[in-house]
Amino acid sequence: MAYLAGSLFGVGSDTTAVAIMVVVMASACYPKAQEKVQEELDVVISRDRGKSNIVIHLSEISTLLQLPHSTTTTPPADEAFMLECLRWRPMTTLGFTHRALTDIPYIRFSNTCIPEGAIVFGNHWAISRDPSVYPNPDQFDPQRWLNTDGKIRDDLKFPSFGFGRRICPGQHIANRSIFINAALLLWSFKITQDPENPIDESGFVDGVIVHPKPFAACFEPRFGNEAALRGVMGKYGEGL
Ligand code: HEM
């Protein structure tokens, strides 16, 4: 039991933390994309909230969580931003090992077969750079996830959470954690680069879970002052 509980923590905390760091990095490096998310957030959680020091309720965050699929009036910029973060800088660049259960003809190359028993990596990084699926793949572009109606596209996916029987069972928790953190961070702050210490967008440390190297970012409260923001966030979740 302890091992099971520990593995959830082990695989879930680092990956989610890295995803949130990528959200911060992308926000600082791509201010226009950040603004689009903030415009959407300001519709759901009014900016006056910060000035009046009124608590943000979890119900409002659940409204946000439903936004991408339920709203017809507000563009789902938040979810598109998050999906693009997961694609742009995948947390597990190589993915995890899988084993072929039978011989698998590999149709993209004639006369090629992945033999039974072979160990296979579904290289997340290579998949994320496929220009036939993600045009201009090195560009951070949340818009690629939206269709012409401004909703999340059904026909575009990225396997951030792996594949098959061993696909990440924590993906729903992870998505919500990233989404809630991104929403609260971007509602609260304008995140910018420190002109003295520009961010190296490719500055990551190799590993099973790929961490960004330490980078500087400036957090400017979007309304009022720091004390007002602390007042709102200090009461986050109260009275539910
Ligand atoms: C951004 C966050 C996360 C990412 C990118 C991520 C990614 C992955 C990937 C790529 C795999 C391997 C899937 C495969 O074999 O193809 C995996 C497995 C796994 N993940 Fe996650 N994960 C995240 C968060 C979480 C969280 C929050 C939990 C638990 C609360 C979790 C629990 C697990 C477990 C238990 C496995 C092993 C499943 C198995 O081998 O059957 N992960 N994850």
Description:
There is one protein chain. The chain is mainly alpha-helical and 240 residues long. Helix content is 43%, strand content 10%. The chain has one domain: Cytochrome P450 (Cytochrome p450). It has a two-stranded antiparallel sheet with strand order 1-4. The chain binds protoporphyrin IX containing FE. Protoporphyrin IX containing FE binds next to helix 1 and helix 7.
Spatial arrangement of strands, main beta sheet: 1-4
Can you give the mean pLDDT?
A: 85
CATH class: Mainly Alpha
User: Considering DSSP H and I runs of 4 or more, what fraction of the residues is helical?
Assistant: 40-55%
Radius of gyration: 20 Å
Query: Between the first and last Cα atoms, what is the distance in angstroms?
Result: 31 Å
Low-confidence stretches: 67-75
Shape type: globular
- What is the name of the CATH architecture? Orthogonal Bundle
**What is the CATH H-level superfamily?**
Cytochrome P450
Number of strands: 8
Sheet-strand content, in percent, reads: 5-15%
By secondary-structure content and strand pairing, the structural class works out as mainly alpha
